[in-house]
Amino acid sequence: MIIVIGAGQAGLAIGRELRRAGHDILLLDAHHRIGESWRRRWDSLRLFTPASLSALPGMPFPGPGHHYPGKDEVAGYLQAYAARFELPVQLGTTVTELRRGANGGFEVATSHGTLTADGVVVATGPFQLPHVPDLPLPPEIVSLHSADYRNPAQLPDGPVLVVGGGNSGMQIAAELAATRPVTLAIGERQPVLPQRICGLDVFTWLQALGLIRAPAAGRLGRLVRDHDPLIGLSPRGLRRLGVRIVDRITAVDGARLRTATGQAITASAVIWATGYRSDYRWIRIPGALAGGFPVHSAGISPVPGLAYIGLPFQRNRGSALLDWVGEDAALVAAAHTAPLRTPS
């Protein structure tokens, strides 16, 4: 038996590959519905990849190929994918500890008891613990991480400060600018690519140029990782929408926030689009982690029988993207050392 921890896009992709290879599997997921982590994102979220570049292996994404799916469409697709390939998913099950078991196997402690496995694939994804800087705000200012933001209606009237210049911060700032004054605080600037170039989606070009599959450890892969671009929206485009762009927020001064250069920001609400932190403390196996992060080569752990899928730049830029995670899944399934089930 191989247990896959996580039933998001990466978990479903590896689940299908392992079944095709003849393994008995069980997928565990803390949510009560497949695709729930997508459903919980903000309402207007859309993929940066069109439907034609947003499919897991064996099942095209429904709809026109040029369409950019919304988050609920992605959730529905994942649910349909699990059903189509009859993947065994145990929902509402939180994994609290992964440890070595008897005879070189594994014990997976969960909210519903302990399971045993010959092998384990960790597919928990990059979005684990929302990160909010340690800047306590006065109680009159509403504070939300982007993980908890849904739409403008949940915010009070008045100006909003969005902190974080990644794709999430850009999208949320643009949405809010239609109904209220918005300030966007950006730390390090990122390069920007248009969504479409010469009539083709930018990911079509990135794939054709070899940037999606460039090995993460190589020179080109490191360049892609160190300069991962924004897609579509840019600070210049947000300024045209009326968004004020400032530098990094570093302090709170009474009812106002201050930037590194001393600019004062007044806001009725702050949305922290400041990313996530990984949390692998529940993996309690000697040699599995270093500095709190998985030790692996292309997803394969030095611990026999343990593997990972869906890590950012696990092998390349595509490792955490819908249309390319299946390539990693095929390699992890092929390299997995858990024994095949006995034919019935």
From TrEMBL:
The keyword Metal-binding does not apply. PANTHER family: FLAVIN-BINDING MONOOXYGENASE-LIKE PROTEIN (AFU_ORTHOLOGUE AFUA_4G09220), FLAVIN-CONTAINING MONOOXYGENASE. Keywords: Oxidoreductase. Gene3D superfamilies: FAD/NAD(P)-binding domain (3.50.50.60). This is Putative flavoprotein involved in K+ transport. The keyword Transcription regulation does not apply. InterPro entries: Auxin_biosynth/cation_transpt (IPR050982), FAD/NAD-bd_sf (IPR036188).
